[in-house]
């Protein structure tokens, strides 16, 4: 592993420090591209205005007309955390703004697949709905939208995914990534797009005289859900997304959140009053995602929608149990996949191909994405993991989920595979770093070779060398528990990486704990300090250059600083 220290623009760091930002935070923010104190203002007034989001005004009029006509509205959600929170935001927000009849429908990952399909449109029509609203999906649902329109439904698509070559003929499309949209935050999550649609709807209703500025419903109660979905979907935390997340965290820490969010914190053993983005990404998000992977995301959405605290606790405990099952299943698949990689791909010289495609008859399609992510992390290669489709009559198809590394745009790679080898890919879609596809079982080897071929052309030795960006050494005066707490309270995530420091340490002692983790006694800048390297079992040399995060370890009522090791320079 190569440890690369981020550059710190001195003028930006000085300007932030002069504005009263803590010197350590000033250095960290400047290294992440923050140039002025204004960029750190997370007030609601600093959010990008909805008017810049193409189609949002038309969406507001469509929704306002539906509310005025007491038309039945059905939300078609996605089965991940972004889709679940977006659905909850849509249902709660529309009801707040006067909609009398709002229901929702979430596709089943195995039976229905992703997005608004023609059968889903038919199920929506069967509910008696008149307006269909997609959240976190729909931009690629050309056939599904066409079927809904043929059934007499009005269709509003709200999405954030990249569009394909053809846009669906919905009544209104709201997506910052559609052609002609000048909205600055191209990486806003699906839940954020829906929140913006509600902001525009409230302005439209205010203009129509439904209420005035003093009596209008407050939509800020939805921000905890927006924050959770934004972080869990691993979208880039640009300035606008950071403001949405900061506002949601602020309300959660103050105890202002839906009962389901509070229940998820309790089920995960986390303290809502000290909520962090880490809690969203590694505690609450996985519990919601587990429902979509192994069961029915309706459980997750109901947890976020209920106002009954007892019911919320019941659902959160159920989600926690499903997540435990998911971890067990994932662990077995991960070990099996790692063994397959070692047996099938490693050549006589111990090298791997530039891209990995793994399939086993026993894999479960609900967790192939997580396993692909683990393999990608282990081997630093674009990776696809496939399982047999569980949909009725589709056992001849393999459903794959892929994760990538910097420098390899996964969806573009799939597009090139489809062009070079017509018929290999039945369906595909996604982003630069994550994508999904379906292949015929008998064409799996063709896909494997085609993806490796593209990777060999696009990736060089430097790109295939694992790199970890760090913030360099940390001054001894900052090795304190209160500084660790200060860092944890800030908004970190994709594109605004949490602080990782690097320095040479003396390894005083080391031992395995739980058979999977390395507990360390270290000396850093002459100061003794504990460390832990989760998931690492190989012993360290007497001196090593480590990358680490600051953490607070609590033992017998005492809180002490601990280093969470992330990597070691090779």
Explain what you see.
This protein is an alpha/beta fold. The protein folds into 3 domains: 45-321, inorganic pyrophosphatase (n-terminal core), CATH 3.90.1640; 345-458, Diaminopimelate Epimerase, Chain A, domain 1; 468-568, OB fold (Dihydrolipoamide Acetyltransferase, E2P) (Beta Barrel). The protein has 17 helices and 17 strands. Helix 4 runs parallel beside helix 12 (298-305) and helix 13 crosses helix 14 (368-379).
Using brief descriptors, characterize the structure shown.
3 domains; OB fold (Dihydrolipoamide Acetyltransferase, E2P); 17 strands; Diaminopimelate Epimerase, Chain A, domain 1; 17 helices; 570 residues; inorganic pyrophosphatase (n-terminal core); five-stranded mixed beta sheet; five-stranded parallel beta sheet; alpha/beta; single chain
Question: In brief, what are we looking at here?
Answer:
This protein is α/β, with parallel strands linked by helices. It has helices spanning 10-18, 23-31, 56-68, 81-96, 118-126, 142-150, 190-207, 223-232, 239-253, 259-267, 277-294, 298-305, 309-344, 368-379, 410-420, 444-458, 481-489, and strands at residues 2-5, 73-76, 102-105, 131-135, 154-158, 172-174, 356-359, 383-388, 397-403, 425-430, 434-440, 467-470, 501-513, 517-524, 527-533, 543-555, 558-568.
């Amino acid at each position: 592993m190569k440890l690369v220290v981020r550059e710190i623009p001195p003028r930006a760091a000085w300007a932030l420090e002069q504005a009263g930002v803590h010197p350590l935070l000033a250095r960290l923010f400047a290294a992440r591209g923050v140039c002025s104190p204004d960029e750190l203002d997370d007030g609601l007034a600093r959010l990008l205005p909805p008017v810049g989001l193409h189609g949002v005004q038309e969406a507001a009029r469509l929704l306002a007309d539906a509310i005025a006509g007491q038309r039945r509205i059905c939300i078609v959600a996605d089965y991940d955390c972004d889709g679940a929170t977006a659905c909850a935001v849509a249902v709660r927000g529309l009801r707040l703004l006067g909609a009398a009849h709002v229901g929702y429908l979430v596709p089943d990952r195995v039976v229905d697949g992703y997005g608004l399909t023609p059968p889903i449109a038919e199920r929506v029509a069967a509910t008696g709905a008149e307006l269909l609203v997609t959240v976190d999906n729909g931009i690629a649902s050309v056939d599904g939208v066409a079927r809904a329109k043929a059934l007499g439904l009005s269709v509003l698509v709200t999405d954030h995914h990249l569009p394909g070559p053809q846009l669906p003929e919905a009544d209104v499309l709201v997506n910052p990534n559609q052609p002609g949209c000048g909205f600055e935050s191209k990486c806003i999550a699906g839940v954020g797009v829906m929140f913006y649609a509600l902001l525009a709807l409230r302005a439209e209703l205010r203009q129509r005289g439904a209420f005035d500025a003093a009596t209008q419903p407050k939509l800020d109660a939805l921000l905890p859900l927006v924050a959770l979905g934004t972080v869990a979907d691993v979208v880039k935390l640009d300035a606008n997304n950071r403001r949405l997340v900061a506002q949601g965290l602020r309300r959660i820490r103050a105890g202002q959140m839906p009962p389901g969010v509070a229940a998820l914190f309790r089920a995960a053993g986390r303290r809502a009053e000290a909520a962090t983005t880490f809690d969203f990404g590694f505690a609450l998000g996985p519990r919601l995602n587990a429902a979509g992977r192994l069961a029915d995301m309706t459980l997750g959405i109901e947890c976020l929608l209920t106002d009954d605290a007892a019911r919320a606790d019941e659902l959160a405990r159920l989600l926690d149990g499903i997540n435990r099952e998911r971890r067990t299943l994932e662990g077995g698949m991960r070990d099996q996949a790692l063994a397959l990689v070692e047996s099938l791909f490693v050549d006589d010289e111990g090298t791997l191909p530039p891209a990995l495609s793994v399939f086993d008859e026993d894999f479960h399609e609900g967790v192939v994405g997580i396993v692909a992510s683990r393999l990608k992390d282990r081997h630093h290669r674009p990776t696809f993991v496939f399982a047999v489709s569980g949909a009725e009559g589709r056992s001849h198809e393999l459903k794959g989920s892929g994760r990538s590394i910097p420098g390899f745009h996964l969806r573009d790679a799939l597009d090139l595979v489809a062009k070079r080898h017509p018929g290999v890919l039945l369906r595909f879609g996604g982003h630069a770093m994550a994508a999904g596809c379906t292949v015929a079982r008998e064409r799996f080897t063709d896909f494997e070779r085609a993806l490796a071929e593209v990777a060999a052309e696009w990736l060089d030795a430097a790109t295939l060398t694992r790199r970890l960006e760090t913030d360099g050494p940390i001054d001894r005066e900052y090795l304190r528990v209160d500084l660790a707490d200060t860092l944890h309270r800030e908004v970190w995530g994709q594109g605004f990486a949490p602080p990782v420091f690097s320095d040479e340490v003396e390894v005083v002692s080391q031992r395995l704990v739980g058979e999977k983790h390395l507990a360390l006694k270290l000396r850093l800048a002459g100061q003794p300090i504990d460390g832990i390297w989760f998931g690492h079992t190989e012993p360290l040399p007497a001196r090593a250059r480590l990358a680490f995060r600051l953490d607070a370890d609590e033992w017998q009522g005492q809180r002490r600083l601990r280093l969470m090791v992330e990597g070691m320079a090779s």
